[in-house]
Write a structure and sequence with these properties.
It is a single chain. The protein has three domains: 3-87, SRP54, nucleotide-binding domain (Four Helix Bundle (Hemerythrin (Met), subunit A)); 104-288, P-loop containing nucleotide triphosphate hydrolases (Rossmann fold, 3-Layer(aba) Sandwich), CATH 3.40.50; 302-444, Signal recognition particle, SRP54 subunit, M-domain (434 Repressor (Amino-terminal Domain), Orthogonal Bundle). An eight-stranded mixed sheet has the order 3-2-4-1-5-6-7-8, with helices on both faces. The longest helix has 35 residues, at 412-446. Helix content is 58%, strand content 9%. By secondary structure, the protein is α/β, with parallel strands linked by helices. Bound molecules: guanosine-5'-diphosphate. Guanosine-5'-diphosphate (GDP) binds at residues 110, 112-118, 195, 250-251, 253-254, 276-279, 283. Residues 271-284 form the SRP54-type proteins GTP-binding domain.
Length: 448
Protein backbone atom coordinates (compact mmCIF):
# COMPACT_ATOMS: atom_id res chain seq x y z
CA UNK A 1 0.00 0.00 0.00
CA UNK A 2 1.56 3.30 -1.01
CA UNK A 3 0.82 6.59 0.66
CA UNK A 4 -1.77 7.63 -1.92
CA UNK A 5 -3.65 4.41 -1.25
CA UNK A 6 -3.76 5.26 2.41
CA UNK A 7 -5.22 8.65 1.47
CA UNK A 8 -7.74 7.06 -0.86
CA UNK A 9 -8.83 4.62 1.83
CA UNK A 10 -9.35 7.35 4.39
CA UNK A 11 -11.16 9.44 1.81
CA UNK A 12 -13.40 6.55 0.85
CA UNK A 13 -14.29 5.92 4.50
CA UNK A 14 -15.27 9.57 4.97
CA UNK A 15 -17.18 9.80 1.66
CA UNK A 16 -19.05 6.54 2.27
CA UNK A 17 -20.26 7.90 5.56
CA UNK A 18 -21.09 11.41 4.44
CA UNK A 19 -22.92 10.10 1.37
CA UNK A 20 -24.97 7.53 3.26
CA UNK A 21 -28.53 8.47 4.16
CA UNK A 22 -28.09 6.92 7.57
CA UNK A 23 -25.55 9.13 9.25
CA UNK A 24 -25.78 7.88 12.82
CA UNK A 25 -23.32 7.12 15.58
CA UNK A 26 -22.89 3.50 14.52
CA UNK A 27 -21.91 4.46 10.98
CA UNK A 28 -19.60 7.15 12.40
CA UNK A 29 -17.87 4.53 14.57
CA UNK A 30 -17.48 2.32 11.50
CA UNK A 31 -15.75 5.14 9.65
CA UNK A 32 -13.37 5.77 12.56
CA UNK A 33 -12.56 2.07 12.71
CA UNK A 34 -11.75 1.95 8.99
CA UNK A 35 -9.53 5.03 9.21
CA UNK A 36 -7.68 3.57 12.20
CA UNK A 37 -7.05 0.22 10.55
CA UNK A 38 -5.76 1.98 7.41
CA UNK A 39 -3.35 3.98 9.59
CA UNK A 40 -2.21 0.89 11.49
CA UNK A 41 -1.52 -0.87 8.20
CA UNK A 42 0.60 2.13 7.24
CA UNK A 43 2.64 1.40 10.37
CA UNK A 44 1.41 4.34 12.41
CA UNK A 45 2.07 3.72 16.09
CA UNK A 46 -0.85 2.12 17.97
CA UNK A 47 -0.77 4.73 20.69
CA UNK A 48 -0.95 7.59 18.17
CA UNK A 49 -3.83 5.90 16.36
CA UNK A 50 -5.57 5.53 19.73
CA UNK A 51 -5.22 9.26 20.38
CA UNK A 52 -6.60 10.06 16.92
CA UNK A 53 -9.54 7.69 17.42
CA UNK A 54 -10.51 9.35 20.70
CA UNK A 55 -10.13 12.86 19.35
CA UNK A 56 -12.28 12.25 16.26
CA UNK A 57 -14.88 10.51 18.37
CA UNK A 58 -15.08 13.28 20.93
CA UNK A 59 -15.19 16.04 18.33
CA UNK A 60 -18.61 14.87 17.08
CA UNK A 61 -20.98 14.13 19.92
CA UNK A 62 -24.13 12.79 18.27
CA UNK A 63 -26.26 13.06 21.40
CA UNK A 64 -25.66 16.75 21.89
CA UNK A 65 -25.68 17.89 18.27
CA UNK A 66 -28.21 20.55 17.46
CA UNK A 67 -30.51 19.34 14.64
CA UNK A 68 -29.42 22.04 12.20
CA UNK A 69 -25.71 21.30 12.50
CA UNK A 70 -24.03 20.13 9.31
CA UNK A 71 -22.78 16.73 10.48
CA UNK A 72 -20.93 16.00 7.24
CA UNK A 73 -18.89 19.16 7.44
CA UNK A 74 -18.15 18.54 11.11
CA UNK A 75 -16.93 15.01 10.44
CA UNK A 76 -14.81 16.00 7.44
CA UNK A 77 -13.21 18.76 9.44
CA UNK A 78 -12.58 16.50 12.46
CA UNK A 79 -10.84 13.89 10.31
CA UNK A 80 -8.78 16.53 8.50
CA UNK A 81 -7.73 18.26 11.71
CA UNK A 82 -6.78 15.04 13.48
CA UNK A 83 -4.70 13.83 10.53
CA UNK A 84 -2.90 17.17 10.53
CA UNK A 85 -2.23 16.81 14.26
CA UNK A 86 -0.88 13.32 13.70
CA UNK A 87 1.84 14.52 11.32
CA UNK A 88 2.53 17.93 12.86
CA UNK A 89 5.77 17.91 14.86
CA UNK A 90 5.01 21.27 16.54
CA UNK A 91 8.77 21.78 16.50
CA UNK A 92 10.42 23.12 19.62
CA UNK A 93 13.07 24.91 17.60
CA UNK A 94 12.80 27.74 15.07
CA UNK A 95 13.18 26.72 11.43
CA UNK A 96 16.59 27.18 9.85
CA UNK A 97 16.57 30.30 7.79
CA UNK A 98 19.64 30.87 5.63
CA UNK A 99 20.54 34.44 4.79
CA UNK A 100 21.79 35.76 1.50
CA UNK A 101 25.37 37.02 1.57
CA UNK A 102 26.31 34.84 4.57
CA UNK A 103 27.64 31.27 4.48
CA UNK A 104 25.43 28.57 6.01
CA UNK A 105 26.80 25.07 6.45
CA UNK A 106 24.35 22.18 6.37
CA UNK A 107 25.59 18.75 7.41
CA UNK A 108 23.64 15.69 6.34
CA UNK A 109 23.67 12.48 8.37
CA UNK A 110 21.88 9.16 8.03
CA UNK A 111 22.26 5.46 7.40
CA UNK A 112 23.54 4.12 4.09
CA UNK A 113 20.86 3.85 1.45
CA UNK A 114 18.55 6.34 3.15
CA UNK A 115 18.88 8.68 0.18
CA UNK A 116 21.41 11.08 1.68
CA UNK A 117 23.54 11.79 -1.39
CA UNK A 118 20.51 12.18 -3.62
CA UNK A 119 18.89 14.50 -1.07
CA UNK A 120 22.06 16.64 -0.81
CA UNK A 121 21.80 17.46 -4.52
CA UNK A 122 18.05 18.04 -4.32
CA UNK A 123 18.55 20.41 -1.41
CA UNK A 124 21.38 22.30 -3.14
CA UNK A 125 19.18 22.68 -6.20
CA UNK A 126 16.28 23.83 -4.01
CA UNK A 127 18.33 26.69 -2.58
CA UNK A 128 20.04 27.43 -5.89
CA UNK A 129 16.68 27.95 -7.58
CA UNK A 130 15.80 30.42 -4.84
CA UNK A 131 18.80 32.56 -5.65
CA UNK A 132 21.37 31.16 -3.18
CA UNK A 133 24.89 30.30 -4.22
CA UNK A 134 24.86 26.60 -3.29
CA UNK A 135 27.51 23.86 -3.38
CA UNK A 136 28.28 20.34 -2.17
CA UNK A 137 31.11 18.81 -0.17
CA UNK A 138 31.58 15.04 -0.18
CA UNK A 139 32.94 13.94 3.20
CA UNK A 140 32.08 10.30 2.62
CA UNK A 141 35.50 8.69 2.38
CA UNK A 142 34.20 5.36 3.62
CA UNK A 143 32.18 4.16 0.65
CA UNK A 144 34.03 3.64 -2.59
CA UNK A 145 32.13 5.46 -5.29
CA UNK A 146 30.42 7.94 -2.95
CA UNK A 147 32.38 10.86 -4.38
CA UNK A 148 31.69 9.69 -7.93
CA UNK A 149 27.96 9.54 -7.23
CA UNK A 150 27.93 13.03 -5.75
CA UNK A 151 30.05 14.32 -8.64
CA UNK A 152 27.64 12.86 -11.19
CA UNK A 153 24.55 14.26 -9.46
CA UNK A 154 26.17 17.65 -8.95
CA UNK A 155 27.40 17.91 -12.53
CA UNK A 156 23.96 17.10 -13.88
CA UNK A 157 22.42 19.78 -11.69
CA UNK A 158 25.27 22.24 -12.41
CA UNK A 159 26.19 22.57 -8.74
CA UNK A 160 29.85 23.13 -7.75
CA UNK A 161 31.30 20.35 -5.57
CA UNK A 162 34.38 19.41 -3.58
CA UNK A 163 35.81 16.03 -2.64
CA UNK A 164 39.06 14.09 -2.51
CA UNK A 165 40.12 10.76 -3.91
CA UNK A 166 43.23 10.57 -1.76
CA UNK A 167 42.39 12.05 1.63
CA UNK A 168 40.96 9.35 3.93
CA UNK A 169 40.02 11.48 6.91
CA UNK A 170 36.44 12.73 6.32
CA UNK A 171 36.79 15.55 8.85
CA UNK A 172 39.79 16.91 6.93
CA UNK A 173 37.98 16.77 3.55
CA UNK A 174 34.91 18.40 5.07
CA UNK A 175 36.94 21.23 6.58
CA UNK A 176 38.91 21.82 3.37
CA UNK A 177 35.75 21.91 1.29
CA UNK A 178 33.86 24.21 3.62
CA UNK A 179 36.80 26.61 3.90
CA UNK A 180 37.30 26.72 0.15
CA UNK A 181 33.63 27.47 -0.51
CA UNK A 182 33.41 30.03 2.30
CA UNK A 183 36.31 31.89 0.69
CA UNK A 184 34.45 31.78 -2.61
CA UNK A 185 31.42 33.36 -0.92
CA UNK A 186 29.06 30.43 -1.23
CA UNK A 187 25.90 30.84 0.81
CA UNK A 188 24.69 27.23 1.17
CA UNK A 189 27.42 24.65 1.74
CA UNK A 190 26.00 21.14 2.06
CA UNK A 191 28.26 18.47 3.55
CA UNK A 192 27.44 14.86 2.72
CA UNK A 193 28.78 12.46 5.34
CA UNK A 194 29.15 8.72 5.16
CA UNK A 195 26.34 6.37 6.07
CA UNK A 196 26.77 2.77 7.07
CA UNK A 197 24.54 -0.20 7.31
CA UNK A 198 23.88 0.01 10.97
CA UNK A 199 24.33 2.54 13.69
CA UNK A 200 27.93 1.91 14.53
CA UNK A 201 30.12 3.61 17.06
CA UNK A 202 32.70 4.45 14.38
CA UNK A 203 30.07 6.17 12.25
CA UNK A 204 28.83 8.17 15.18
CA UNK A 205 32.36 9.20 16.17
CA UNK A 206 32.98 10.30 12.58
CA UNK A 207 29.85 12.43 12.64
CA UNK A 208 31.01 14.16 15.81
CA UNK A 209 34.46 14.76 14.28
CA UNK A 210 32.98 16.33 11.13
CA UNK A 211 30.59 18.37 13.20
CA UNK A 212 33.49 19.70 15.26
CA UNK A 213 35.50 20.42 12.11
CA UNK A 214 32.85 22.33 10.13
CA UNK A 215 30.52 23.65 12.87
CA UNK A 216 27.33 23.30 10.83
CA UNK A 217 24.53 25.86 11.15
CA UNK A 218 22.09 23.02 10.64
CA UNK A 219 22.49 19.24 10.86
CA UNK A 220 19.83 17.30 9.02
CA UNK A 221 19.11 13.63 9.40
CA UNK A 222 17.92 11.76 6.32
CA UNK A 223 15.49 8.93 7.06
CA UNK A 224 14.00 6.37 4.70
CA UNK A 225 10.18 6.35 4.95
CA UNK A 226 10.01 2.61 4.53
CA UNK A 227 11.28 2.06 8.08
CA UNK A 228 7.90 3.23 9.37
CA UNK A 229 7.61 3.79 13.10
CA UNK A 230 11.19 2.60 13.66
CA UNK A 231 11.99 6.14 12.58
CA UNK A 232 11.54 7.20 16.17
CA UNK A 233 14.25 4.91 17.58
CA UNK A 234 16.60 5.66 14.71
CA UNK A 235 16.24 9.40 15.00
CA UNK A 236 16.73 9.19 18.75
CA UNK A 237 20.00 7.26 18.34
CA UNK A 238 21.30 9.91 15.95
CA UNK A 239 20.06 12.75 18.10
CA UNK A 240 21.92 11.44 21.12
CA UNK A 241 25.16 11.65 19.13
CA UNK A 242 24.81 14.42 16.59
CA UNK A 243 22.10 16.58 18.21
CA UNK A 244 20.71 17.23 14.75
CA UNK A 245 18.20 19.95 14.20
CA UNK A 246 15.85 18.64 11.54
CA UNK A 247 14.79 15.62 9.54
CA UNK A 248 14.16 14.90 5.87
CA UNK A 249 12.08 11.80 5.18
CA UNK A 250 12.84 10.26 1.79
CA UNK A 251 10.97 7.80 -0.42
CA UNK A 252 7.52 8.87 0.70
CA UNK A 253 6.41 8.08 -2.87
CA UNK A 254 6.74 4.34 -2.56
CA UNK A 255 5.50 3.40 0.86
CA UNK A 256 2.41 3.84 2.95
CA UNK A 257 4.74 3.44 5.91
CA UNK A 258 5.74 7.03 5.15
CA UNK A 259 2.68 7.77 7.30
CA UNK A 260 4.23 5.73 10.09
CA UNK A 261 7.61 7.40 9.72
CA UNK A 262 6.24 10.93 9.56
CA UNK A 263 3.93 10.47 12.54
CA UNK A 264 6.70 8.78 14.57
CA UNK A 265 9.10 11.65 13.93
CA UNK A 266 6.35 14.21 14.50
CA UNK A 267 5.70 12.68 17.91
CA UNK A 268 9.30 13.47 18.93
CA UNK A 269 8.89 17.17 18.16
CA UNK A 270 11.80 17.23 15.70
CA UNK A 271 11.02 19.44 12.71
CA UNK A 272 10.49 17.62 9.42
CA UNK A 273 11.78 20.14 6.91
CA UNK A 274 11.35 18.33 3.60
CA UNK A 275 10.11 15.05 2.24
CA UNK A 276 11.57 13.18 -0.73
CA UNK A 277 8.92 12.17 -3.23
CA UNK A 278 10.93 10.40 -5.93
CA UNK A 279 14.32 9.88 -7.54
CA UNK A 280 14.25 12.99 -9.73
CA UNK A 281 16.14 16.05 -8.56
CA UNK A 282 12.91 18.05 -8.33
CA UNK A 283 11.26 15.47 -6.08
CA UNK A 284 11.78 17.33 -2.84
CA UNK A 285 8.88 19.05 -1.12
CA UNK A 286 8.88 21.36 1.82
CA UNK A 287 6.94 19.58 4.53
CA UNK A 288 3.88 21.37 5.85
CA UNK A 289 1.39 19.23 7.82
CA UNK A 290 -1.79 20.74 6.35
CA UNK A 291 -0.58 20.60 2.79
CA UNK A 292 0.64 17.08 3.28
CA UNK A 293 -2.81 15.96 4.46
CA UNK A 294 -4.56 17.88 1.67
CA UNK A 295 -2.45 16.07 -0.88
CA UNK A 296 -2.86 12.74 0.89
CA UNK A 297 -6.61 13.13 0.65
CA UNK A 298 -6.47 13.99 -3.04
CA UNK A 299 -7.35 17.63 -2.52
CA UNK A 300 -4.28 18.58 -4.55
CA UNK A 301 -1.50 20.74 -3.26
CA UNK A 302 -2.02 24.01 -4.99
CA UNK A 303 0.42 25.91 -2.82
CA UNK A 304 3.11 23.28 -3.36
CA UNK A 305 2.48 23.53 -7.06
CA UNK A 306 2.72 27.30 -7.00
CA UNK A 307 6.03 27.09 -5.10
CA UNK A 308 7.33 24.48 -7.48
CA UNK A 309 6.31 26.47 -10.51
CA UNK A 310 7.79 29.65 -9.07
CA UNK A 311 11.09 27.88 -8.50
CA UNK A 312 11.09 26.87 -12.16
CA UNK A 313 10.29 30.41 -13.17
CA UNK A 314 7.46 29.28 -15.44
CA UNK A 315 4.68 31.50 -16.55
CA UNK A 316 1.79 30.62 -14.27
CA UNK A 317 -0.61 33.39 -15.25
CA UNK A 318 -3.86 33.42 -13.34
CA UNK A 319 -4.58 29.73 -13.03
CA UNK A 320 -3.84 29.34 -9.34
CA UNK A 321 -5.88 32.42 -8.54
CA UNK A 322 -8.67 31.01 -10.66
CA UNK A 323 -8.59 27.62 -8.91
CA UNK A 324 -8.70 29.27 -5.51
CA UNK A 325 -11.82 31.06 -6.74
CA UNK A 326 -13.27 27.81 -8.05
CA UNK A 327 -12.90 28.76 -11.72
CA UNK A 328 -10.99 26.84 -14.40
CA UNK A 329 -11.08 27.97 -18.04
CA UNK A 330 -9.95 26.02 -21.10
CA UNK A 331 -6.93 28.36 -21.23
CA UNK A 332 -6.07 27.34 -17.64
CA UNK A 333 -6.03 23.74 -18.83
CA UNK A 334 -3.74 24.63 -21.72
CA UNK A 335 -1.33 26.54 -19.46
CA UNK A 336 -1.21 23.67 -17.01
CA UNK A 337 -0.57 21.11 -19.72
CA UNK A 338 2.35 23.03 -21.12
CA UNK A 339 3.78 23.72 -17.66
CA UNK A 340 3.56 20.07 -16.76
CA UNK A 341 5.67 19.24 -19.80
CA UNK A 342 8.45 21.44 -18.42
CA UNK A 343 8.23 20.40 -14.81
CA UNK A 344 9.71 16.93 -14.64
CA UNK A 345 8.21 13.46 -14.48
CA UNK A 346 4.52 13.65 -15.19
CA UNK A 347 3.54 11.12 -12.59
CA UNK A 348 4.92 13.39 -9.85
CA UNK A 349 3.12 16.48 -10.98
CA UNK A 350 -0.19 14.77 -11.43
CA UNK A 351 -0.87 14.49 -7.68
CA UNK A 352 -0.48 18.22 -7.23
CA UNK A 353 -3.19 19.17 -9.70
CA UNK A 354 -6.75 18.35 -8.71
CA UNK A 355 -8.22 15.72 -11.02
CA UNK A 356 -5.01 15.20 -12.94
CA UNK A 357 -3.81 11.88 -11.50
CA UNK A 358 -6.92 10.07 -12.77
CA UNK A 359 -6.34 11.46 -16.25
CA UNK A 360 -2.82 10.01 -16.47
CA UNK A 361 -3.68 6.67 -14.90
CA UNK A 362 -2.21 3.60 -16.63
CA UNK A 363 0.14 5.61 -18.86
CA UNK A 364 3.89 5.72 -18.62
CA UNK A 365 5.64 9.07 -18.79
CA UNK A 366 6.29 8.81 -22.54
CA UNK A 367 2.70 7.95 -23.48
CA UNK A 368 1.57 10.68 -21.13
CA UNK A 369 3.81 13.24 -22.88
CA UNK A 370 2.46 12.33 -26.32
CA UNK A 371 -1.09 12.68 -25.05
CA UNK A 372 -0.28 16.01 -23.44
CA UNK A 373 1.34 17.33 -26.62
CA UNK A 374 -1.75 16.46 -28.67
CA UNK A 375 -3.93 18.17 -26.08
CA UNK A 376 -1.79 21.29 -26.32
CA UNK A 377 -2.05 21.27 -30.15
CA UNK A 378 -5.83 21.17 -29.84
CA UNK A 379 -5.83 24.11 -27.44
CA UNK A 380 -3.54 26.01 -29.81
CA UNK A 381 -6.14 25.66 -32.55
CA UNK A 382 -8.74 27.42 -30.43
CA UNK A 383 -9.66 31.09 -30.58
CA UNK A 384 -9.05 33.38 -27.59
CA UNK A 385 -12.78 33.38 -26.91
CA UNK A 386 -12.86 29.60 -26.79
CA UNK A 387 -9.78 29.39 -24.56
CA UNK A 388 -11.14 31.84 -22.04
CA UNK A 389 -14.51 30.14 -21.89
CA UNK A 390 -15.82 27.62 -19.41
CA UNK A 391 -16.13 25.12 -22.28
CA UNK A 392 -19.93 25.33 -22.80
CA UNK A 393 -19.38 27.15 -26.07
CA UNK A 394 -18.38 23.82 -27.64
CA UNK A 395 -21.52 21.93 -26.71
CA UNK A 396 -23.60 24.85 -27.95
CA UNK A 397 -21.75 24.96 -31.29
CA UNK A 398 -20.25 21.49 -31.96
CA UNK A 399 -18.83 22.53 -35.37
CA UNK A 400 -16.12 24.30 -33.40
CA UNK A 401 -14.84 20.86 -32.43
CA UNK A 402 -14.57 19.74 -36.05
CA UNK A 403 -12.61 22.90 -36.87
CA UNK A 404 -10.19 22.31 -33.97
CA UNK A 405 -9.65 18.65 -34.87
CA UNK A 406 -8.84 19.68 -38.46
CA UNK A 407 -6.52 22.50 -37.35
CA UNK A 408 -4.56 20.38 -34.89
CA UNK A 409 -4.30 17.14 -36.82
CA UNK A 410 -6.35 15.27 -34.24
CA UNK A 411 -9.79 13.65 -34.26
CA UNK A 412 -13.13 15.06 -33.10
CA UNK A 413 -13.20 12.26 -30.58
CA UNK A 414 -9.93 13.52 -29.04
CA UNK A 415 -11.30 17.06 -28.87
CA UNK A 416 -14.35 15.70 -27.09
CA UNK A 417 -12.10 13.85 -24.66
CA UNK A 418 -10.11 17.00 -24.00
CA UNK A 419 -13.28 18.90 -23.21
CA UNK A 420 -14.48 16.11 -20.94
CA UNK A 421 -11.18 16.32 -19.04
CA UNK A 422 -11.57 20.05 -18.83
CA UNK A 423 -15.09 19.73 -17.51
CA UNK A 424 -13.92 17.32 -14.83
CA UNK A 425 -11.03 19.54 -13.83
CA UNK A 426 -13.27 22.59 -13.75
CA UNK A 427 -15.59 20.64 -11.44
CA UNK A 428 -12.64 19.74 -9.23
CA UNK A 429 -11.44 23.33 -9.23
CA UNK A 430 -14.88 24.46 -8.14
CA UNK A 431 -14.79 21.97 -5.28
CA UNK A 432 -11.20 22.85 -4.43
CA UNK A 433 -12.03 26.53 -4.32
CA UNK A 434 -14.89 25.68 -2.00
CA UNK A 435 -12.74 23.40 0.10
CA UNK A 436 -9.99 25.94 0.40
CA UNK A 437 -12.49 28.53 1.48
CA UNK A 438 -14.00 26.07 3.97
CA UNK A 439 -10.64 25.18 5.43
CA UNK A 440 -9.67 28.82 5.66
CA UNK A 441 -13.03 29.64 7.21
CA UNK A 442 -12.74 26.75 9.68
CA UNK A 443 -9.24 27.80 10.63
CA UNK A 444 -10.37 31.38 10.99
CA UNK A 445 -13.20 30.26 13.25
CA UNK A 446 -10.74 28.31 15.39
CA UNK A 447 -8.31 31.21 15.48
CA UNK A 448 -5.75 29.01 13.62
P1 LIG B 1 22.73 7.24 0.53
O1 LIG B 1 23.44 5.95 0.66
O2 LIG B 1 21.99 7.58 1.78
O3 LIG B 1 23.60 8.36 0.06
O4 LIG B 1 21.58 7.01 -0.54
P2 LIG B 1 21.48 7.44 -2.08
O5 LIG B 1 21.36 8.90 -2.20
O6 LIG B 1 22.55 6.76 -2.85
O7 LIG B 1 20.04 6.82 -2.45
C1 LIG B 1 19.74 5.45 -2.40
C2 LIG B 1 18.64 5.16 -3.42
O8 LIG B 1 17.42 5.77 -3.01
C3 LIG B 1 18.94 5.71 -4.80
O9 LIG B 1 18.56 4.76 -5.75
C4 LIG B 1 18.04 6.94 -4.91
O10 LIG B 1 17.66 7.22 -6.23
C5 LIG B 1 16.86 6.51 -4.07
N1 LIG B 1 16.10 7.64 -3.51
C6 LIG B 1 16.53 8.69 -2.78
N2 LIG B 1 15.52 9.51 -2.40
C7 LIG B 1 14.38 8.97 -2.93
C8 LIG B 1 12.98 9.33 -2.90
O11 LIG B 1 12.54 10.32 -2.30
N3 LIG B 1 12.12 8.50 -3.57
C9 LIG B 1 12.56 7.39 -4.24
N4 LIG B 1 11.64 6.65 -4.86
N5 LIG B 1 13.85 7.02 -4.28
C10 LIG B 1 14.76 7.79 -3.64
Amino acid sequence: MVLQDLGRRINAAVSDLTRSSNLDEKAFDGMIKEICSALLEADVNVRLVGVLRKSIKSSVNFKELAPNVNKKRLIQKAVFDELVKLVDPHPHTKPFNPKKGKPSVIMMVGLQGAGKTTTCTKLARHYQSRGFKACLVCADTFRAGAFDQLKQNATKAKIPYYGSLTQTDPAVVAKEGVEKFKKEKFEIIIVDTSGRHRQEDALFQEMVDIQTAVKPDQTIMVLDASIGQQAEAQSKAFYDTAAFGAIIITKTDGHASGGGAISAVAATGTPIVFIGTGEHILDLERFAPEKFVQKLLGMGDIQGLVEHVQSLKLDQKDTMKHIAEGVFTVRDLRDQLSNIMKMGPLSKMAGMIPGMSGMMQGMDDEEGSIKLKRMIYMCDSMTAKELDSDGKIFTEQPTRMTRIAGGSGTSVREVEDLLTQHKMMAGMAKKMGGNMKNIQRAQGAMGG
